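Deliverable D4.2, example record:
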Amino acid sequence: MEMSRPSDRSEQNILITGATGAIGAALAEIYAQRGVTLYLHGRNVKKLTEVAECCRQKGARVLTQCLDLRDFAALQSWLSVLEPLDLVIINAGMNTHIGPAGEPEPLNEVEALLDINLKSAMIITHTVTPSMRVRGSGQIAFVSSLAAYFGLPITPAYCASKAGLKAYGEALRGWLAKEGIRINVIMPGYVKSPMCDDMPGSKPFLWSSKRAAKVIKRGLERDQARISFPFPLNWGAWWLAVLPASISIIIVRLLGYGD
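Output generated by the structure prediction step:
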């Protein structure tokens, strides 16, 4: 990775994890412009190089990092040398699901999922917030999911991690708002991507990653507590959390997300 230079507060410094995924890449490209430094993380070196080059062509200064988010020591070491961050989008994630005959999710996949989807997000937050609190400014966005509203029987660990991320982000918003730090929870529905393609079940109201990125950027600029989409899927998912669980379980099974 290119070495950091002395901080230039006339620039906006943005960190995006999972920048090789569909939403992450789209966000990187939509934020890329002159005066912006993008710190892009991803595991796919080829894809990360392509995204970085596209962003540079738009005028952004881009620094990339390929590391395993489960290597928490390396993650903290990298974050500690970055310039002060104005916006952190914690987007990296993975999914797992039960088997076709109802087999449980592999334990090693569940452990990896919780490390990446939830624990690394907490570690990133703990590492970047001290400088934000000193400055009295900054913004952190957590990419959760509409699946955080109610657990789907086919993806229990994924739903648990996204629900945890939602609750964590909402708690931080209440805690850090008085210090000038904005916290936002992003709750997408189905966005076209390889990970989405691999998920079982129907995928209603499927959006493109570019459309999702535009809505996310607008929501972050408005400091929306929850940025959820698309309607009416987000409205329906919210109702699953409101209704008695016995009724919600029947609904998700009727929609093809049961066992």
